[in-house]
């Protein structure tokens, strides 16, 4: 299986990767004896303790099967059905989750804001909140803001930006959600603590991605704002997101953070992206579309080069206007990156 | 971990069990190289072929993380928002999924029907359909029937019953869903083919349980009626039920059915339940509430005996009126069963 | 128009009636000059004052176009999406609103309770609340109880019954909704104050019917529990239930209660029903199915008599088992009633 | 009542107007005898015939209480829950209905398109459809386009534009909805037939506004595409939008179109707007923001002038950046318009 040439040389996504060995071993280790079902087990209790340590505050962790579930159910818990969620206009929740947040929330509205490099600007959010027509019953009412860290463009909000959005959310009386599909990649880039990047900057609830960075099939919702815990627990159960054998999701997530595994894995893919971005930017005719701050690289290059890369068997995502997206992975190698750069040089030179 | 005495001796549920070794090994085996994401991989393709062989017709299989997701999304795809789903009044979908089907369908109505031993009777369904006020716009319109095989009482519909319900559904122009949370247990009991128990008897769509019987965290929706495939694929994705690393769900399900593993596991737990039921029924003062046809045993016994069992550290679920539910597992032992029976004898005698 | 013989002699429903002249005159009177839109007008302000007087407390009144809207939006505001609403198993909300409450609430569950004469018994509610599995995330959580006053069987809850349900709701921490589609008919029967029949007995929110008893097309939601006002105002607007020219709905409702019009109209139809019930019960072979306490009469009679009545051009609703439902109207006459009774006597005698 | 000075001199909206006398008389005329409920009456049958004549094809008409109900329920019937509706980014459905379409559809996505003068450009729609990622399960799938005729800016799509959008919708396999809140105003401007402006140009379903232009509280959904009729009838009923005494809604709508009343009323308000626009545009410092093609006038003027107008008691809506919106009404007068213009001249000159 899986011996198709194209797939073995790909910058298509981080979800094509296998599972980090440490995480698979943790599944084996968890597989003995009995354990209470639906999260009432000791692995789940340990998961809460481990994450509470990591985030330096008491958190509740709900493992879920996908990032879409994490985002949509977090946001559905933050908003009223007639509420609005502010996000970047190109946010994953707004463009690539099939209306999940609208559906789970009972029809809340996502309001896409413009912003350079895929990031919501605090001043844009503030302006949107000022013009939000609060109390006018035919307007969706401000209830939440969601940012993606790292963003869909592979850029990273610095702490001041997060804190400014957090302050705006607090002043505006709305909740602050962070889509951390690539949380570890951003954390490595900032070199700060997990608490600084989240609740200390005002984040109420976090979609904590793990699958893209080495887990098998378990992301998590990390709840900082205690009043969201109970309603979320019901919403998850009826969404079919509460595993009966929860210990195996908990075991993945425990192993993921234990001994800094998630940071090591993310650090590696970040370095590959950084190398990729630096070398590509040095090739005449190739242009970076956004700063490379995580494991994503967006570059513009001549259309014939793109087609030649495709023809050569390299896989990646295309955007309009001669732009391609390259994703590096925890299991990628410098050799692949260098090989790819050489190929681009040859095709363009 | 998990060394609490109570948990190590339990008839509380089948979800407290670990994962069958064959399935864990399959996860290991799947963990090399890259694989396309979101079900576009070769494991998923193989899963479809394996299940198409098993069911002797072309099926589409969608792995999901829980039985609630399987049931609610299957049914949401079968009905209009103003539709009705007929089911047993004590069906899991009606009592223990927190309104999941109502939510995912946009407000469809579950209509609970009475029926002995937890089973919908074909004549009751037929009568309900006759009085359904079709075309009357203030009545929820008949769109689907759902049965649980094996039922919530551990009883099993025989083929004639399933076929009669299937005929009723066809005549009534509604879809037929089977909640097969304990599909393997029922199949073993009937000794028929998977096709006979499903589409040959009129079933359109099946919630195929695997987690209770040895998988780690992967159930599946098996679609026989082709027109449900496309809408379901969208509903699953926006429900957050489409794993990015789908190969690991597919691998579990492939291993689950390969070489008849699922039947061997179910056969074992069925035999334990059978032994438990037979021996308990022979104890004066203990009475079986429903025939034992899968891995569930419902018995009535004097309240002091129930309390003494609990005090002794045995775990099980209670129902009203001195009735308890005992669940046997693929990893259970005859020794446990015999020990339990001896305990009951001692307590009651 | 409307000169079909069958329709001119009917006990089919109260919605076939015209509009009370006083209400039509009020529409004329309201039709001069300008008025602010969407309820910000002086008629709407007056409506709130009039109803606050009527109910002897400060209430907020939201006119809506139908009873279904009143019920479903009231209840959607009372419950969480994973909540449950207790009601009589034959309640209009459970059987004749096409799943409206399920839809507007985002999938809340209606739990039908048995009860003689179409009424929820306080002890049945209390038992249901005791067994509600609070805190268990796969169970719909108790959030509201709804009773119909007068009930779907034309019976009326006495104050002690309402207060007992109100006490049960308060003790159980759930909200209390009254479906008052025939509020005036019940009020006349009890001879108590509107406040006694509602908030003084624990009612949080009321669907106040007017259309069946003389209005043109305006029912109302009357909110006693202030915390429901704001969320309801948003839910109504997005449900398309906030008229732009609200003054005309307000004018209908003001006229409806002014000078006790609603009581006079209901009193008349109640008297007709009472006469109908008394006389029919005296005919051998005819049997009252429920006490006649409002403007509905349920009687069982021999099938040939029912068919003969239909053949004679009388219109009424049929229930199963030889039972028919007769509805009297504010514009009905004693002559019609006597004519009908004579006809039944002739057919049966 | 209603003698507040500000209100008697207002360009705030068309909903502050009273009811056209012809329509009120029709209500009186309809108020005798009995009529079958829920649209099964002869007025409703006549309404369908009248509108079928008007539109020169067999249509089904569903009266509803508001334009929001008309829009949201029409669109919910056109789309799948995972569908997308294309509309102008400033469309009423996207900005001023509190997420009604998202809610009634079960989470469909509104995709706002840019376009001059509040109008969707056919080429923009075509481009959006080309890039819609059909078949990609995490993208909301194209299901409908909605245009507002006359638009929120008071501009009118010419027949060629409508037909081009209709052709785009047909080619793209999506449905075409027209929000005709000011249908009559647009029709008068184009001077074409109602059929040309709708189904002959590809429109499947129409929100037919009447309340803004003289009705009391009845708009309508006019269905051209027969396959939408049945599902819509159920959706309306459970949305609480099916009046029991439907004859009174039907009577309003019949009177509204009879003898061209709706065209006369709209013609008058259009003329007032035209006069207003022409005269304002001639004042130095005042600038029209969009062509005046219906009964709305958008003008920019110096901030002090706007404040002075407000202080003088004139009521109107403000937009950002020194822009105000003036709405003329069927019951407005040339005197008011001239008085207003004189006031502006005085304030600015």
What does this structure look like?
The first copy, chain A, folds into two domains: 96 residues, Aspartate Aminotransferase, domain 1 (Alpha-Beta Complex), CATH 3.90.1150; 239 residues, Aspartate Aminotransferase, domain 2, CATH 3.40.640.10. Helix content of chain A is 42%, strand content 15%. Chain A has a seven-stranded mixed β-sheet with strand order 1-7-6-5-4-2-3, with helices on both faces. In chain A, helix 7 runs parallel beside helix 8. The longest helix of chain A is centred in the last third of the chain and has 21 residues. Chains in contact: A-B, A-C, A-D, B-C, B-D, C-D. At the A-B interface, helix 2, helix 3, helix 4 and helix 10 of A face helix 2, helix 3, helix 4 and helix 10 of B.
Structure in a nutshell:
4 copies of one chain form a homotetramer. The first copy, chain A, has 349 residues and is an alpha/beta fold.
What brief labels describe this structure?
homotetramer, 349 residues, Aspartate Aminotransferase, domain 1, 7-stranded mixed beta sheet, 4-stranded antiparallel beta sheet, 15% strand, disordered N terminus
- The CATH homologous superfamily of the largest domain in chain A corresponds to Type I PLP-dependent aspartate aminotransferase-like (Major domain)
What are the secondary-structure elements of chain A, in order, as H or E? HHHEHEHHEHEHEHEEHHHEEHEEH
Largest interface: A-B, 58 and 58 residues
Unreliable residue runs of chain A? 1-7
Q: What is the highest CATH level, the class of the largest domain in chain A?
A: Alpha Beta
Distance between the termini of chain A: 36 Å
Oligomer: homotetramer
Decide which structural class fits the backbone of chain A. Answer: alpha/beta
Question: Domains counted in the coordinates of chain A: how many?
Answer: 2
Helix count, DSSP H or I runs of 4 or more residues of chain A: 14
Q: How many strand segments of chain A?
A: 11
Question: Strand arrangement, largest sheet of chain A?
Answer: 1-7-6-5-4-2-3
Taken as a percent bin, the fraction of beta residues of chain A is 15-25%
Average pLDDT level of chain A? 95
């Amino acid at each position: 299986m899986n011996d198709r040439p194209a797939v073995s040389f790909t910058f298509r996504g981080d979800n094509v990767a296998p599972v980090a060995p440490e995480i698979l071993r943790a599944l084996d280790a968890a597989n003995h004896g009995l354990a209470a079902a639906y999260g009432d087990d000791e692995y789940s209790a340990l998961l809460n303790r481990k994450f509470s340590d990591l985030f330096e505050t008491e958190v509740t962790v709900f493992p879920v099967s996908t990032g879409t579930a994490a985002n949509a159910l977090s946001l559905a818990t933050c908003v009223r059905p007639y509420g609005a969620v502010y996000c970047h206009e190109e946010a994953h929740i707004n463009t690539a989750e099939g209306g999940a947040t609208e559906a789970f929330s009972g029809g809340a509205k996502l309001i896409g804001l413009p912003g350079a490099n895929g990031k919501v600007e605090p001043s844009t959010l503030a302006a949107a909140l000022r013009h939000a027509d609060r109390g006018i019953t035919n307007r969706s009412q401000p209830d939440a803001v969601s940012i993606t860290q790292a963003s869909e463009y592979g850029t990273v909000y610095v702490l001041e930006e997060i804190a400014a959005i957090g302050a705006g959310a607090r002043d505006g009386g709305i909740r602050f959600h962070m889509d951390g599909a690539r949380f570890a990649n951003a954390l490595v880039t900032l070199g700060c603590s997990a608490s600084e990047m989240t609740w200390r900057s005002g984040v109420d609830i976090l979609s904590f991605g793990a699958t893209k960075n080495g887990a098998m099939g378990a992301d998590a919702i990390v709840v900082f704002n205690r009043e969201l815990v109970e309603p979320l627990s019901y919403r998850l159960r009826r969404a079919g997101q509460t595993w009966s054998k929860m210990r195996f999701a908990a075991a993945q997530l425990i192993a993921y953070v234990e001994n800094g595994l998630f940071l090591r894995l993310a650090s590696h893919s970040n370095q590959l992206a950084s190398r990729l971005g630096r070398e590509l930017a040095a090739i005449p005719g190739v242009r970076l579309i956004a700063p490379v701050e995580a494991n994503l690289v967006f570059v513009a290059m001549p259309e014939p080069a793109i087609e030649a890369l495709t023809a050569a068997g390299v896989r990646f995502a295309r955007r309009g206007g001669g732009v391609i997206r390259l994703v590096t992975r925890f299991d990628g190698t410098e050799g692949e990156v260098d090989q790819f750069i050489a190929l681009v040089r040859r095709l363009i030179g």
